[in-house]
Each structure stands twice: as C-alpha cells, then as structure tokens.
Specification:
With about 400 residues, the protein is an alpha+beta fold. It has two domains: about 190 residues, no CATH class; about 200 residues, no CATH class. It is about 55% helix and about 15% strand. It contains 13 helices and 14 strands. Strands 1, 4, 7, 8, 9, 10, 11, 12, 13 and 14 form a ten-stranded mixed β-sheet that branches. Strands 2-3 form a two-stranded antiparallel sheet. The chain has a two-stranded antiparallel sheet with strand order 5-6. A hairpin with a 2-residue loop joins β5 and β6. α11 runs antiparallel to α12. It is elongated, with a radius of gyration of 32 Å. The protein starts with a helix and ends with a helix.
Length: about 400
C-alpha cells in the first residue's frame, strides 16, 4: 500500500466514524483557535499601537512630573512640585537656543468634563487640555476637518476648540460640528477642528478630548496648581541621548535642582512606550500559548483514546491486511496518517476561525483598516497539528502493528 492509498484509507476510516472524527477535529480546532486567534489579536493590537506611536518617532521625549498621592512606609511621600508655566516656557526658550528642536507645551485642564450642545450632552468623562500650535504635529494627531489652533488663538486667548472624533459623533450625529458652539465648564467654545479617530488601549481616550489654546486653558489655573508637560522632538535620532542630557541639564537649571539631588521631573522617551507595549503583548502571547497548549493537550488525549478504540474495533481488519502481506510499518503508517488527517482538518478550521476572531478583537479596540494574517503563527499552528497527530497516533499505531495476525483474524 503506497502513501496515497494510506491517505485514502485514512479518509475512509474517518468517514466510517464521522461523528467521532468531527468531535475530535473540533477539539483540535478549539486549541488552534486559541493559539492563532489570541496571537492574531495580539499582533493586531501591537500593529495598531505601533502605528499610533510611529508619528512620535524615536527622536521624541516628554518632560513631566507625575502627580502621585498617598503614603509610603507609613510616612507622607514627598512629591515633586509641578512644572509651572514659567518653568515650561523658560525651558523652551533656553533649549531651543541650544538645540535645533521642536518643543510643545501643554497641560491637562480637567479629565472629567461634561460637554453640551443644544439638547445633546456627554458623560462627564471628557478630557480638556490646553495646547500650543505644535502639539498636534508632535503628538501625531491628524485633522479630519477644520484647522489647528494657531498663534492668533494663543495671543487672543480665543474661545475656540479642536475636538476628538468620538465627541463629534456623540454631539453631532447628523450634522457637521464645524463652527458649532459647545458649552463646558461655564463657558462657550467654537469648534474650529475635528481630529481623526485614533483609538487607544485605554478605551478610546484620545478620541474623547477637547483641545483649547494653551493661553485659554491657563485661565482655569487660578491657584497655579496645573502641572505643564513638555514634549521635545530633535531633528536627528542619532543625537537623542545627547539631547536628553542637554534637556536634563536645562530643566534642572530652570527648576533650581541642587547639585547632588535627584531630578525633580521625569523624562520619558516615545520609543520606550512602544517597548512597554511590546512587553505587555509578549505576556499576552505567553498567556495565549499556555491556553492553546492546555487545550491541545486535552485534544491529543481525546485523539489517542479514539485511535485506541479504532484499533480495537478494526482488529480483524488489521489481521486481514497482515495476512495479505502488509508489513508492521505499513500498518503503523496507516494509523498515523489517519490521526494526522484528523488533526489537519481540525487545525485548518481552527486557523481560519482564529484569523477572523483575532482581527475582530483587534478591530473592536482600534480603528483598524488592515487585515492581519499572521503567517508565522499559521505555520506554527499547522506544525503543532501534525505534531499532535504524530504523538497521539504513535502508540495506537504501534499497538496495531504488533497485533498477531492469527489472533486478529479470530477477533469478533
């Protein structure tokens, strides 16, 4: 019996026990679905995060002070004072004199604002920020409609706003938001621009935002408690370390940090965010692999049990084949091929469902336009299928090949 005949015989044996084979193939498909589906979703999420951060570039870094509260070791934790506007502006003036760089200043005005337009209103979860004209470009935002905040808006402290796409959809479901006047925090603001949908791992926070001119946002800083953040983009990525060192020295000078004391601020590189998300998605990949291994382990046990039952049921058939001259190697090959065929059928279904399911998950988290096909994981899934078939089918095949032909012919 040649290889082709063995495959045909395996398919006939599967057809003869169709329900049992389908159940086994479904178990295999579930394991491959977990493997390919989770890892496809992870790849899709990582791809969208990288696209979201790609505009920032490796030549960009932030200077900020984290506002933390609480106690540590039973003692009140000493907090670094916020970066006030005077310090942020002083850094920008000094640093741009020393380095050829683009510097943006911005601040969080409020993170829980209700925005109204006519009878429509949002939940009190809108983030309001005061930004300068450089903010959109340096943070990789794109405009869907309208214009950016300009120097004239800054000089006049104009009551204008650029809003996120989710906010625009909520307040203006049937009309254009351009030039409409919204109300929030006791004031009215004219919409001059709408941002493109960006999405985020935090649930679309970048799309629930209102951007005001920095000078307008500063009017809410009545107590001088706002902490201003600084994003800096240098022209050459090769000089990023030198630029960060220069920025650190400049900021320490502006903040009045004493020699020997730690920095009273933090510097975070944009590419460190990408590395952080890669670490997170690596953990998700490991979790997906663990789930898939556990599922496939159960599937392999089920498959081995089915093959053992098949050997017992086909004992007389095995005896006939041996009496007609089939060697033990041919008998082993026949049962191995049968196990592998079941695994491949289940694996192919699992791969298809995994690709579709993974893309649906990643698309639900981001405005994803591309369809991810993870060829590496597809190949890995099929290799796993064949491996499971070989491992699960080997012992039943070995047992079948060792049956005594005379005793097998007497089996009823």
């Amino acid at each position: 019996m040649n290889f082709t005949e063995n495959i045909a015989e395996g398919l006939r044996a599967i057809q003869g026990n169709l329900l049992r084979a389908i159940i086994t193939a479904l178990i295999i498909a579930l394991g491959i679905l977990a493997l390919v589906g989770i890892l496809t979703a992870v790849d899709g999420i990582q791809n969208n995060v990288n696209q979201s951060l790609s505009g920032l570039g490796a030549n960009t870094f932030d200077i900020k002070v984290e506002q933390r509260y609480g106690r540590r070791g039973g003692m009140q934790e000493k907090l670094d004072p916020p970066i006030v506007f005077r310090e942020a502006l002083g850094f920008k003036d000094l640093f741009t004199q020393q380095e050829e760089a683009l510097v943006s200043l911005y601040t969080n005005v409020s993170g829980a604002v209700e925005v109204k337009y006519g009878s429509e209103k949002t939940n009190p979860n809108i983030q309001v920020m005061g930004v300068d004209p450089e903010y959109l470009g340096i943070k990789a935002y794109k405009l869907q409609n309208g214009r950016n905040i300009n120097e004239s808006d800054m000089n006049l402290s104009s009551k204008v706003a650029v809003i996120g796409s989710e906010l625009a959809s909520k307040l203006f479901p049937k009309t254009s938001p351009m030039d409409k006047v919204i109300s929030m925090m006791g004031n009215k603001y004219q919409i001059v621009g709408v941002l493109e949908k960006k999405g985020s791992l935090s649930g679309g926070g970048d799309d629930r935002v209102v951007l005001l001119p920095l000078s307008t946002g500063r009017q809410f800083d009545t107590r001088g408690s706002f902490s201003y953040q600084i994003t800096t983009s240098v022209t050459s990525v090769e000089n990023i370390e030198e630029a960060i060192g220069e920025a650190t020295a400049t900021m320490r000078r502006v903040r009045g940090d004493r020699v020997g004391e730690k920095d009273s601020f933090e510097i975070e590189r944009a590419d460190s965010l990408i590395k952080e998300t890669e670490n997170i998605t690596s953990g998700m990949q490991i979790g997906g692999l663990v789930i898939a291994v556990i599922t496939l382990l159960g599937a392999s046990i089920a498959l081995m049990n089915i093959m053992m039952v098949s050997v017992t049921e086909r004992t007389r058939e095995i005896g006939v084949r041996k009496a007609l001259g089939a060697s033990p190697a041919k008998i082993r090959l026949q049962f191995l091929i049968e196990a592998i065929v079941i695994c491949i059928i289940g694996g192919a279904a699992g791969v298809l469902l995994g690709i579709i399911g993974g893309n649906v998950v990643s698309s639900s988290m981001f405005d994803q336009s591309s369809f991810i096909i993870p060829w590496d994981w597809i190949i890995a899934g099929l290799v796993v299928c064949i491996s499971v078939g070989l491992l699960s089918g080997f012992y039943p095949a070995y047992k079948a090949s060792k049956l005594d032909p005379i005793e097998s012919l007497r089996y009823e």
